[in-house]
Amino acid sequence: MMPQMAIGNGIEGFVEITFTITTDGTVKELAVTYAQPRGIFEEAALTAVSQWEYQAVTRYGKPVEQRSLSRVKFELPQT
Questions:
Q1: Domain with 11 in it: what CATH number?
Q2: What strands, in cross-sheet order, belong to the sheet with 13-21?
Q3: Half-sphere exposure in the Cβ direction for 67 (13 Å, CA)
Q4: How many structural domains does the chain have?
Q5: Would 17 be classed as within a structural domain?
Q6: Residues 59, 54, 39, 29: what is their CA dihedral angle, to the nearest 10 degrees?
Q7: Does residue 18 fall inside a structural domain?
Q8: Residues of the chain with pLDDT > 70: what percent?
């Protein structure tokens, strides 16, 4: 089932993704660690997170890579 079909069926959910924030603020090494329900929102969440940009983490004045975990929620609009 695709996210668009989930809307029509009233399905909400979330996807937890781990990834690395690079020294230039882009993300790499994305992986789904958990999804509820499974098989619906993972691809959309990975596509969205792959486009995120961050200000790089700095340690001792130099940018460093940082692992991160984020939960992407898919909620129906409230009526």
A1: 3.30.2420.10
A2: 27-36, 13-21, 66-74
A3: 4
A4: 1
A5: yes
A6: -50
A7: yes
A8: 94
